[in-house]
Amino acid sequence: MNVSIRPIFKYTVIAILVLIGTKAHSQAPLITNIKARKVTSLNGPWQYIMDPYETGFYNYRFNERNEKDREAYWNTDKPENKTDRKEHGYSSKNTLRVPGDWNSQAEQFLYYEGTVWYKRSFDYKKQKDNNRLFLYFGTVNYKADVYLNGKKLGSHKGGFTAFNFEIPGTLLKEKDNFLVVKVDNRRYKDEVPTINTDWWNYGGITRDVWLAELPQQFIVDYSVQLKKNSFTEIEGWVKFSDAVNDKVTIEIPELKWKKELQSNGDSISFSEALTGLELWSPEKPKLYAVRINTSENAVTDKIGFRSIEVSGPSILLNGKPVFLRGICIHEEIPQQGRRAYSLGDARQLLLQARSLSANMVRLAHYPHNENMTRMADSLGILVWSEIPVYWTIEFTNPEVLAKAKTQLSEMITRDRNRASIIIWSVGNETPVHESRTAFMKELLVTARQLDGSRLVSAALEVHLDKGVSVVDDPLGEFTDIVAVNEYLGWYAGLPSSIKNVQWQIKYNKPFFISETGAEALSGHHGDSLTRWSEEYQEWYYKEQVAMLKKMPANFSGISPWILNDFRSPRRNNPVYQQGWNNKGLLDHQGKKKKAFYVLKKYYDEIKLKTL
Ligand code: GCU
Question: Whose CA, among 77, 133, 481, 553, lies 20 to 30 Å from 126?
């Protein structure tokens, strides 16, 4: 590569950056489409130490241990000789599977909230000496402190978004690297989410871990999508690790299209009208191989091209009104009571949704793993993706707003090229208040700044006033679609009261019901008035469907709560819940409850009408 600056100066700059890098403990910009890079998996059994008192991090005076402290759990656990005193140790007797939550892997972890130290050793020989190395985590819940060979690489907070650290050039050894991650899943009022949620606080390294080897200058991130208001023109940009003077090519071989550009900075942008471009849709989820090359680096992605917009009371997909036949999904495999993370998990959950005749999923209440959004691209299932600004966040705390924005940015950065994602949601059921609306509006503005091509929304508040469901949440003024969660017939009244409910929606925008649902313990039967029975849940859905058939003209879809029963520490009825929220249409074993068929029938009728 003909770099414009003299080599000596270049290497001096790099040395300074490496020095800064080792000191700053800062994350490196997220490397997108990580599996398409030159990566080595660090998944598998990691040894662990459960450390509720954080002894590995603080000394007996509760001061943070310094880097060289021999009793710090990021330093070697091997005694120097027979006299040496070591009061911590990693053992092959104590391992946890990575990726995976710790709660489902051993009884003593089920309710555990605190610190667990993960450790694995690995050998690695770089392909080229002056290549760069990065450690990439699909996510860690909730806080991760990452150390390699006794040096801190950095920290990350946020239990559902990806992050990566550069490994300083001199730190990695060819043999026996000592990688340690301190994971702390404790809940705090000033975090995102806050201390109160209706889902299990699964802790751990819950998604893949990769070691990526990249050239000095590489492609960090890119966006390639349909230009707004066009069905034939694409536009995008490519971001490089450093400012480069280089030839960049973008190509879509199937369309016999290739564009050559000259970069002279750390990014380039482009737009082009294409002939023969087939749009992505649920009916025909067409994905194209898109290849980006520089003289040193190349990356290929599978990208679908579609447009999503609102027009008055309608949502338009590729210019045509679309009705969202949705279902909410937690990132959980109920059969094993664990976090979902794999390709197989994504296939299971999305095929279950499709068996309901759904064309959309609301990935509640946090960004799901990348297998899920890529699988949705392939299967043609539309996606609502959300950050966990859930319930009673500290809306007056600017640090909490910054944390929420970071998670929003991390969610959008990873998934901006996923055609299936049509809605970015900035939160769920947050209590109406001036500070909350200002906080959420900031997030909506940020989401639009990060990605102006998708709809932005949130699950808003609705209130019942003398039998009228009133939707006048002030945040609705700033969202593209107005979405609310309603539980008429479960939390408010009985299903028999649903038919009399009128809707009063303040906004002439697409209206979406982002949740509705009732619990049923699978196999528990009685008459429809028997709470917790499948018959009650079935009655609830029948009454809900009857109401949905009389909704106002701007009614554009629904995502009932929820596909599967899921774990929740808030659900403690000793017979009908036992630590599970049983609003699933499928039970813990994936068996369909009676209500499943009511919703499926409704969706099939809609599908037939739209054919
Ligand atoms: C709320 C919330 C969900 C919760 C559900 C319920 O709407 O958004 O996270 O699980 O209601 O009460 O079951």
Answer: 77
Distance CA 417, CA 32 (A): 10
Nearest CA to ligand 1 atom 6: 198
- Look at ligand 1, atom 4, and give the residue with the nearest C-alpha: 198
Compute the distance from residue 443 Cα to the ligand 1 centre, in Å. Answer: 22
Ordered domains of the chain (ranges, CATH): 2-10+224-306 (2.60.40), 31-214 (2.60.120.260), 322-610 (3.20.20.80)
Q: What is the pLDDT of residues 229-248, one digit of tens each?
A: 999 999 999 999 999 899 99
Q: Are 112 and 103 in contact (CB under 8 A)?
A: yes
- What integer pLDDT is reported at residue 253 of this predicted model? 98
Residue 101 structure tokens: 């939550």
| pLDDT value at 386 more than 50 | yes
State pLDDT tens for residues 187-216.
999 999 999 999 999 999 999 999 999 999
Q: How far apart are CA 565 and CA 272, in angstroms?
A: 46
- Which position has the token pair 């700059």? 13
Whether 465 shows a pLDDT value over 90: the answer reads yes
Whether the upstream peptide bond of residue 111 has omega within 30° of 0, thus cis, is: no
Q: How far is the CA of 224 from the centre of ligand 1 (A)?
A: 35
User: Coil, strand or helix: which one is 606?
Assistant: helix
Judge whether residue 384 has pLDDT over 80: yes
Sheet containing 502-505: which strands, arranged edge to edge? Answer: 463-465, 468-471, 502-505
β-pairing, 314-317 with 320-321? antiparallel
- Check if the beta carbon of residue 236 is closer than 8 Å to that of residue 303: no
pLDDT digits (tens, 9 = 90+) for 82-112: 999 999 999 999 999 999 999 999 999 999 9
Tell me whether residue 553 is exposed, middle or buried, using C-beta atoms within 10 angstroms of its C-beta: 0 to 12, 13 to 18, 19 or more: exposed
- Tell me 14's DSSP state: H
Which protein residues touch ligand 1 with a CB less than 6 Å away?
198, 365, 428-429, 485, 515, 561, 581, 583
pTM to 2 decimal places: 0.95
**Longest distance between any two alpha carbons in the chain, whole Å:** 82
CA angle 114, 369, 330 (to 5 degrees): 75
Distance 384 CA to ligand 1 centre (A): 16
Tokens 């020095």 belong to residue: 19
Alpha helix (H) residue ranges in 86-140: none
Which residue spans within 66-114 are E strands per DSSP?
95-98
Nearest alpha-carbon partner for 302 in 487, 33, 82, 593: 33
| Smallest CA separation from ligand 1 atom 3, residue | 198
Q: What pLDDT was estimated at residue 5?
A: 40
